[in-house]
Write a structure and sequence with these properties.
The protein has eight helices and no strands. With 160 residues, the protein is an all-alpha fold. The chain has one domain.
Length: 160
Amino acid sequence: MAELESSQKAFLEATNGLSEGQWNFKPAPDRWSIAECAEHIGVTETLVLNLITEKALKGSSEPEKRALVQGKDTALMTAAADRSTKFKAPEAIQPTRRWATSGEITKNVLENRARTIEFIHGTQEDLRDIYGPSRVQDTGYFQYLRRVPPHVGGVSNIHW
């Protein structure tokens, strides 16, 4: 929970007071702008939360898989925060200019984060026991959810 709250604060600190030009500045043609990174964060968090709630509400708990992911949290968090190696995001979570302004994008990110926090506070499910398709073998949705906050680094590392 602390990771979600601190990354929200970091997101707001990194984007507060930026002009629309700064939001939309691309450091290189093949790199995302702050607006695109923020859109990706919001869309990804929505997708992950939808996957988790769908699985949790269907009672798809698989505690026997917990041993497969044991010890992977640190490696996954490090990999998510490491911006030196670029990975192509799946098409569903790539930025497409779903929102027109920085205010709309920020509102989306904050609303998604609020839903995530509300879900975590309200669920009785052990999120470490909910699994689904992953690009990273033997990870659960708990790890997916933990990988969202480090992506804020993508926003704060863009210099205009």
